[in-house]
Amino acid sequence: MPWAVGSLRLGRAWVAAPDPAALRARWAALTSAEEREQERLFRPSRARTPAAGAAALPGRRSPATARFADAPGPCPEPVRVLREPFDEQWLLPDQRLIDLARPELWRVLDEHQLFSVETPELLVTAHLPVGRLGRIRPLHRRPGGGEPNLAPGLLPLLGERYGCRVAPEDVLCWILAAGRPGPRGYEVPLTADPGRWRAGLELGHRILTVQLRGGPAGEPPRLPGGRRPYVRSAVPAWPEGLVYDPQSETLGLGAGTISPVPAGAWAYEAPGGTRVLEAWFAARAAHRDPEAEGLEAIGPAAWPQAWTSELLALVTTLALLADLAPERAEFTPGPLLPAAALGAAGVLPPPRWSRRPASVLDHHEEGPGGQFALL
User: Fold this and answer.
1) How far apart are CA 262 and CA 246, in angstroms?
2) Inter-CA distances, 69 with 36, 50, 51, 370, Å
3) Each residue of 180-213: pLDDT tens digit?
4) Per residue in 347-369, pLDDT tens?
5) Among 92, 84, 86, 82, residue whose Cα is nearest residue 24
6) How many CB atoms lie within 10 A of CB 374?
7) What's the CA gap between 65 and 55, in Å, rounded?
8) First CA to last CA across the chain, in angstroms?
9) DSSP letter at 100?
10) Upstream peptide bond of 349 is cis (omega within 30 degrees of 0)
11) Rounded to two decimals, what is the model's pTM?
């Protein structure tokens, strides 16, 4: 996957939140503030201030491109993003608020796109990854899924070697099954054995389905009967903490309880050693921190029902990934396809143009102040 993009840098934490209503409330508070208070709430950086203009993000309707201090416009509709590993939150899609928004990723964001994120273990998401997650590799170079972000010639070569049609998503599934972090980055061995290829695809597809939580058109994966988590005691208006009882496999949110929560889900860690469930809860309690200031202190007054549903889905995702971890750890690609074969076929090294974003010449984009951007 030659084309890789660095992480988005928000520059200010308040533009993303677990609750879309909180983002609308923050926008209202910011736009109604007096000039000096607005600048304080905005939290200016070298890249973005209320007096700076920016182009509209590709694909956004009714974009506001005037300087924020002059004409903020209506609140943009929050969009779903991946904020931290396995933590789907919401973002205000206005480039005037974001230090480094990576417009090239917004241009290829659609229902066909998948993004792989290079953490120590590869993450795949249908949502735009934001924040310091790692380098991002889109599966497709253009909207519509018409041009894969793969080394030119790779798909025909693999199809000939394995005796079957190989799709871009197949390569991504193989990467999930066989790829491993290495000294030169995320390393992906290619097998010379068609049988190992089929086994890797089957495993990788199961991992992908779990990571995508079923995807836009698929059914969310579920744990077997008897292992599915349910709310046993209602979550209070605001739970003060998150605790886990390994004996009863119960997750406590204040007086509320969810069970069964498998030990593998509770123990599942993000890069850096933080438990995913604890980080997920902390992100939702952040606005209630006594040290929270400005717009970051604006959040829901009571625990939204949607968060409980999200938590149940997250427990399921982590439990299923924990179940798959031993099988993935034991998977081996078998005899390898030598690099010389890829070089002889012209697949490696990939051409320079494949490492850059595709040209966009089929539609207009609005630049700062309303002029057209030429791309």
Assistant:
1) 8
2) 11, 5, 5, 15
3) 998 888 899 999 999 999 999 999 999 999 999 9
4) 999 999 999 999 765 555 666 65
5) 92
6) 9
7) 6
8) 23
9) B
10) yes
11) 0.93
